[in-house]
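Quick review question:
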């Protein structure tokens, strides 16, 4: 591993900025990156993408080497160049340096002193402490070999990558002995002990099956923590190598345990991630003997070998001609084909020749989607080189989207350069297709990480930039600091501004012709007044950049109804996926769904936690109940008369609710901050001592079940009460949880009551000395449920049916009129507010200490309690690039009709690395007989009736004549408009009424002015056979 990576120990990490990325890379890898230097050679489209991703990730410095002037082809992929830069005196590196530097103030971005893009001028730069060299433009083979050899000499990693139209190449050589600290990036496998026993000379460990499989492989290392009831040589904190014997068992050789302990056997098992040493071969050797390629599409099994030869053929011709072939230059492309044939070891088929010719013709083209996809992949490879985390690509990788290309080369007049910002796309797809792109009308929902990347790609592609084109973007959120490490259209100065309008403005800066409208509304049923029939009627398609499944499913329903294509993509750390949804051709997004997440049983949360996830959820629930819900309930009481308030209470919880109001308004209402500190100290005693003592009174440590088994065994961990100690630290997270709880709880309590708080430790020490903590004695008769079934039974038995106690509490409460203007301030939990997380972390850790569960620091607790989705810019760039390649197909491959095989869904994991492109699933079909013929329909189909607002009688007559079906029931939502058993007089009345009037007379709801369609459900029988026919919904256009 190179020296810069070792200079890592003292570097301070900005957790606010890198928050989501740290959940991908970890602190140690982040520090290594922050001590590393990358040299990016070539600042065309691909180079600027790689540099952008490295700068967002937070390297120490990024050096830009490119003395060349920009061309119109560069405008297809470089988002920091514009038409006014063409013909100027500045180089691509100089033009890109300042905007790249703005992405991250922690990164030193500078222009390297390189007079040319040759090994002679670049090799001296490698003696300046470069960790990784990334060459991103075509370069002479000899120069690449020399640069690669220099990298091996100085211990730097070498990456070569080029994007030529819809074809891409990546090569990586990280040296002879590259140390990979974490090969896959998966969290360490964890499990809990069910039993430990001897068998022969080995210790066998069985894990709790209800916690899932142990997830280990033979050869993995594990450590144990919180061992109980296990005597022998196994020690806490020591590494042990395991041999897996089953999904729930493993053995450790050479250790011993004594059996027959009086205590139940318990403990935690955690995998210890092991570093591996990887060996790479040089560019020169792998060019001649490429070995095994990293695959991207198994339907193109022979494609990597063909492209390996074709890129060499292309470079041979470039070296001879002094430049890449001009688009459409048949003679130059033929030279590339001949050069490729001389290298390719197999017989060249017509399909092979098409690929080579298309690569040659479009080789000058710099396409934003391909640059984004490769920029994500290569950016992550640079981060691997700098951090030592994740497995690098070993050798060559090829990516292509030849499905976007016509079967034959387009004529010169279609692809000739026009000195336009779209010359690259014109070179590949022709000017006719470019006109279609310009006139697209797209709706993107979400302007976060994926939304920013998508808008950048669209601005460069020209989507919505023509006279009839438009882009709509909506996002309710405002910009936060943690967004800046991956949502690259935003800057520090944009914090607290709306994402949608800021992203729209930034995209327009990249292409002033972009017509874009920004909204700050969610897309849901209650905004259909804005995003309704008339809105979707004008769209070409929809792109989702959302962070939750529920919203995706709603948008999916809209796309199915309006028969619009949907571009769907998502990321989870280094994992990414894309799904292309094409009307009638593919299944819709909601056709297949993941199973719902398992919830935590109530009893586990309340009394029997065994994982930090349980204690964090409990702490968060307590936060919500104490600092938000109680305050809201008090404000509700104060906002009306006591009688009105009492009437509005739930019958089965009146007494409990009123007790909470009394506690907040009377019993625990503070008059100053000292009172808040006393309150926090008493809460500590109640939660972490008294309640635990009561639980142990009900279920003593030696309790046995009715079957004679130990009650406190398996996943039930016997708790112990905590004794308050202001200076106590937990052994795992090394946090002062006792003090942190008091400080955080007191300040939150003060915030609720509008009292100014403070955090000085000496002040708390002084006040706490005077707090009198009442003695506590556990009581008999207190019901505590041993499982969820008992909990449910106890809740049913404890239903509040007596109003007498509730009446007495209500009468004793201060009247709202006696507290004019008094109001509490409910506190909404926010994972990004440190004071909130200090409380939740301390509260969770204290409960974990009660149950001997390993504690966690604030960073890890924030991820769990806040349900943070790990994110990094590289994966986002990759998925948006891949889905934009699918957009080319939706617009229409020139002179070619595409089948489902041409479209590609993607799943990738940059950590392993792994990518698979596969054809989408077709929609499920339902068979019916209509008009005497068999009809197979899918979720995309409906019976469309476009008659205007006719009467119901006219509507039914038309339906029966058109489809030869007799309607037995017609309904709108839950309202029946017609049924064969309905009152005849009522039917006659409705037959004479307009369809909208019939619906209004039943539902009493008006149709908004932007609604064009009414969805109707019908049950109908064939008029000849009288058999019921299964039909899709009716889509009735009444305007």
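Suggested answer, residue by residue:
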């Amino acid at each position: 591993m190179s020296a810069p990576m070792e200079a890592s120990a003292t570097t301070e990490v900005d957790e606010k900025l890198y928050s989501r990325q740290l959940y991908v890379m970890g602190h140690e890898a982040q520090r290594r990156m922050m001590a590393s230097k990358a040299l990016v050679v070539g600042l065309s489209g691909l180079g600027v993408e790689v540099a952008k991703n490295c700068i967002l990730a937070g390297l120490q410095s990024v050096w830009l080497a490119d003395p060349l002037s920009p061309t119109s082809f560069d405008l297809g992929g470089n988002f920091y160049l514009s038409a006014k830069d063409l013909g100027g005196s500045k180089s691509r590196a100089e033009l890109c340096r300042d905007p790249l530097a703005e992405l991250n103030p922690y990164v030193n971005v500078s222009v390297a002193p390189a007079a040319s893009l040759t090994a002679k001028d670049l090799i001296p730069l490698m003696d300046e402490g470069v960790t990784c060299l990334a060459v991103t433009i075509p370069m002479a083979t000899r120069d690449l070999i020399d640069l690669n050899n220099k990298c091996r000499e100085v211990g730097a990693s070498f990456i070569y990558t080029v994007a030529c139209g819809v074809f891409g190449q990546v090569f990586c050589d990280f040296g002879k002995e590259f140390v990979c600290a974490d090969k896959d990036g998966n969290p360490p496998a964890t499990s809990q002990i069910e039993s430990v026993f001897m068998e022969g000379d080995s210790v066998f460990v069985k894990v709790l099956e209800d916690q899932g499989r142990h997830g280990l492989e033979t050869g993995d290392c594990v450590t144990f923590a919180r061992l109980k009831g296990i005597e022998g040589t196994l020690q806490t904190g020591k590494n042990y190598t395991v041999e897996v014997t089953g999904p729930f068992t493993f053995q450790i050789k050479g250790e011993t345990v004594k059996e027959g302990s009086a205590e139940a056997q318990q403990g935690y098992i955690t995998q210890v991630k092991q570093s591996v040493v990887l060996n790479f071969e040089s560019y020169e050797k792998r060019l001649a003997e490429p070995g095994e390629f990293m695959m991207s599409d198994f339907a193109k099994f022979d494609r990597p070998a063909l492209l390996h030869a074709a890129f060499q053929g292309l470079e041979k011709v470039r070296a001879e001609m002094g430049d890449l072939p001009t688009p459409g230059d048949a003679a130059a492309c033929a030279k590339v084909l001949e050069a490729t044939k001389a290298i390719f070891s197999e017989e060249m088929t017509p399909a092979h020749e098409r690929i080579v010719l298309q690569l040659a013709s479009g080789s000058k083209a710099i396409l934003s989607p391909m640059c984004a996809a490769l920029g994500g992949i290569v950016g992550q490879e640079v981060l691997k080189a700098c951090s030592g985390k994740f497995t690098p690509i070993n050798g060559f990788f090829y990516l292509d989207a030849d499905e976007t290309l016509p079967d034959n080369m387009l004529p010169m007049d279609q692809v000739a350069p026009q000195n336009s910002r779209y010359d690259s796309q014109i070179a590949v797809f022709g000017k006719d297709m470019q006109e279609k792109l310009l006139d697209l009308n797209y709706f993107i929902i979400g302007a976060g990480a994926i939304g920013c990347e998508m808008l950048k790609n669209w601005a460069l592609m020209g989507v919505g930039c023509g006279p009839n084109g438009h882009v709509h973007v909506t996002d309710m959120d405002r910009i936060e600091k943690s967004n800046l490490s991956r949502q690259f259209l935003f800057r520090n100065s944009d914090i607290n501004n709306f994402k949608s309008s800021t992203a729209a403005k930034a995209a327009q800066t990249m292409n002033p012709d972009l017509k874009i409208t920004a909204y700050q509304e969610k897309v849901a049923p209650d905004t259909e007044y804005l995003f309704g029939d008339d809105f979707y009627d004008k769209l070409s398609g929809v792109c989702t950049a959302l962070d939750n499944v529920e919203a995706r499913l709603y948008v999916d329903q809209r796309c199915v109804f309006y028969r619009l294509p949907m571009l769907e993509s998502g990321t989870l750390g280094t994992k990414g996926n894309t799904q292309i949804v094409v009307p009638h051709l593919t299944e819709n997004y909601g056709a297949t769904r993941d199973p719902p997440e398992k919830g935590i049983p109530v009893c586990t949360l309340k009394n029997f936690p065994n994982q930090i996830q349980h204690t964090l959820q409990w702490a968060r629930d307590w936060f919500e109940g104490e600092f938000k819900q109680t305050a809201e309930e008090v404000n509700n009481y104060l906002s009306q008369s006591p009688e009105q308030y009492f009437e509005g209470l739930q019958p089965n919880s009146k007494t409990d609710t009123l007790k909470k109001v009394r506690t907040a308004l009377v019993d625990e209402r503070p008059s100053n901050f000292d009172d808040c500190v006393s309150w926090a100290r008493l809460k500590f005693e109640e939660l972490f001592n008294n309640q635990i003592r009561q639980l142990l009174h009900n279920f003593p440590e030696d309790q046995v079940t009715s079957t004679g088994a130990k009650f406190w065994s398996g996943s039930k961990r016997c708790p112990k009460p905590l004794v308050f100690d202001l200076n106590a630290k937990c052994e795992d997270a090394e946090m002062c949880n006792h003090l942190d709880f008091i400080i955080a709880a007191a300040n939150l309590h003060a915030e609720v009551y509008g009292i100014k708080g403070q955090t000085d430790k000496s002040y708390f020490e002084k006040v706490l000395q005077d707090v009198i903590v009442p003695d506590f004695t556990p009581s008999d008769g207190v019901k505590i449920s041993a499982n969820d079934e008992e909990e449910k039974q106890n809740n049913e038995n404890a239903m509040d049916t007596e109003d007498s106690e509730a009446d007495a509490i209500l009468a004793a409460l201060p009247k709202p009129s006696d507290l004019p203007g008094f109001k509490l301030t409910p506190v909404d939990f926010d994972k990004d507010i440190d004071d909130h997380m200090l409380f939740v972390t301390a509260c969770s850790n204290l409960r974990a200490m009660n149950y001997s569960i390993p504690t966690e620091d604030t960073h890890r607790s924030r991820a769990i309690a806040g349900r943070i989705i790990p994110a990094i810019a590289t994966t986002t760039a990759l998925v948006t690039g891949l889905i934009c390649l699918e957009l080319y197909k939706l617009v229409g491959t020139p002179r070619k009709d595409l089948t489902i095989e041409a479209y590609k869904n993607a799943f990738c994991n940059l950590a392993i690395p792994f990518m698979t492109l596969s054809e989408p699933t077709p929609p499920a079909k339902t068979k019916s007989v209509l008009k005497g013929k068999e009809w197979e329909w899918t979720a995309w189909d409906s019976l469309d009736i476009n008659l205007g607002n006719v009467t119901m009688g006219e509507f039914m007559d038309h339906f029966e004549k058109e489809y030869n079906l007799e309607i037995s029931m017609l309904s709108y939502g839950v309202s029946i408009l017609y049924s064969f058993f309905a009152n005849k007089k009522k039917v006659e009345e409705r037959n004479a009424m307009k369809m909208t009037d019939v619906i209004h007379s039943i539902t009493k709801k008006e149709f908004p002015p932007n609604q064009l369609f009414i969805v109707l459900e019908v049950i109908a029988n064939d008029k000849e056979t009288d058999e019921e026919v299964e039909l899709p919904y009716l889509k009735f256009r009444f305007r």
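Why it works: The first strand starts at residue 37 and ends at 41. The chain has 33 helices and 34 strands.
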